[in-house]
Amino acid sequence: MGSLPPSLDLPADPKHGQQRQIDESTLLNLFKAQQNHLNYFFRHLDLSQALSFSQTLLNTTGTIFFSGVGKSGFVANKISQTLVSLGIRASFLNPVDALHGDIGALSSLDVLVLFSKSGNTDELLRLVPCARAVKDVMKKQNELPVCREGDLIMDQLVELTSKGCGCLLVVDPDHHLIGTFTDGDLRRTLKASGEAIFKLTVGEMCNRNPRTIGPDAMAVEAMKKMESPPSPVQFLPVIRDQNVLIGIITLHGLVSAGL
């Protein structure tokens, strides 16, 4: 245990044909040194963090994935095998393979545990954004560009341009999503309607069948959905049960998060 081994007074290298000898006191010093490392670990253990981590694992209804690079990877693999032997759904996830597509094995029900001594392992830092859920990277509450379907388009230009989403999210009084109206819709409406745009409402021109996603979906899944045919989009409204709007996830936000 520990990064630095204890200083031991080991016998010199034996001559050819001789066996190396070790006495009882040397072995006892080794055991005491390891015991000190263990005691140091438990004395400095943050019980609140350990409790939170343990509770998260106990509450998991999916698979617990462990990942790491080098020696940390061996530890992660061993722990996953131990949990499997106890009847717990667990698996080792190679971080390099995960970055090349295996991250798709994770679902919103799973937990990913990363092992790293330094906390700066490049493969793991690149993996973290891919393992985030939509709810971890979405905009919410006051960040949302919301309006009502009866609002005039020209009255909502500030809302359309000030939130950095490139769209308006059209909702009813109970915050159910009705549709979306983008800056592209604004340009097309202006070109087609001319001065009549001053009398048009957002509800008349909005897209009432936008692509959406749930808060527990993986962020990488959101990016795939944005890029899917027939044409790519720059954002996805985030909805929960009964089509209630709770957030928005944007392509710019995903790129900023490291995807």
UniProtKB/TrEMBL annotation:
Respond yes or no to whether keyword Ribonucleoprotein is given for this record: no
Q: Where is the CBS domain?
A: 138-197, 206-259
Where does the record place the SIS domain? 53-207
Keyword vocabulary terms for this entry? CBS domain
Q: Which GO terms describe its molecular function?
A: carbohydrate derivative binding
One matching Pfam family is: CBS
- Which InterPro entries does its entry note? CBS_dom (IPR000644), CBS_dom_sf (IPR046342), SIS_dom (IPR001347), SIS_dom_sf (IPR046348)
What GO biological process, any one, is recorded here?
Answer: carbohydrate derivative metabolic process
Quote the protein name from its UniProt record.
Arabinose 5-phosphate isomerase
Native species: Linum tenue
